[in-house]
Design brief:
The protein is built from 8 helices and 5 strands; from the N terminus they run E-E-H-E-E-H-E-H-H-H-H-H-H. It is an alpha+beta fold and 196 residues long. The radius of gyration is 22 Å and the shape is elongated. Strand 3 (36-43) and strand 4 form a beta hairpin. It has helices at 20-33, 50-57, 74-95, 98-103, 107-131, 135-138, 148-167, 171-192; strands at 2-5, 8-10, 36-43, 46-47, 66-73.
């Protein structure tokens, strides 16, 4: 049997493990002590979804069994939040300049900020969802009194108008939403990540 974690092959010795489930249980017991959670499982090239897990766990180990695990650590999530805190502050400042950039024919710079915002939202949503694997460490994070889910729901209510303004090339509305709706929320987010 071969075991890979985040692409690196581990040199392991089986003890009493006879099935895929035995290996996963042993790995989980050890990794949870180290602040690591498994986020995906591939066995013999097949991605194991929740509905396939029980059946796959019973699979007998053979010399050719290949188990690949994707894991994330508390430390990696914390580091990601640290970077995203700085990113939120910088992006908030950039968003306040969009109106001026459009008015001074710097459309490419304004559009780059909008693209950065989309990438940032994607990244922070991903980190926030991974942080839910460690509720004892990250579950108490509140953004202006809201959980991550409530915060993103609130932010999402603004984004359709922002997207429509972009499609309509309504630079005044883009600037107003960026400066008065999105930027303050990014400031709140950055403040909430201060004490992680």
């Amino acid at each position: 049997m071969e075991l890979f974690v985040n692409g690196s092959k581990l040199d392991i010795q089986l003890e009493n493990e006879k099935t895929v489930g035995d290996v996963l249980k042993s790995f989980e017991e050890q990794s949870s002590k180290e602040g690591i959670a498994t986020v995906n499982i591939i066995v013999d090239g097949k991605n194991i979804t929740a509905d396939l897990f029980d059946q796959t766990a019973k699979q007998e180990l053979t010399d050719s069994t290949k188990i690949e695990l994707g894991v994330v650590s508390k430390e990696a999530i914390k580091n990601s939040f640290e970077q995203q805190k700085a990113g939120a502050k910088a992006l908030s400042e950039d968003l306040k300049t969009i109106s001026v950039k459009f008015q001074s024919s710097k459309d490419a710079e304004a559009n780059a900020i909008i693209a950065n915002l989309a990438d940032y939202i994607d990244g922070i949503c991903h980190t926030a969802s991974l942080s839910m694997l460690f509720p004892e460490d990250f579950g108490s994070i509140k953004i202006d009194g809201k959980t991550f889910n409530e915060f993103f729901a609130d932010l999402s209510s603004i984004l359709p108008d922002f997207e429509q303004a972009i499609k309509n090339k309504d630079t005044v509305l883009i600037g107003d939403l960026a400066e008065y709706e999105i930027s303050p929320r990014l400031d709140q987010l950055a403040a909430s990540l201060e004490n992680i």
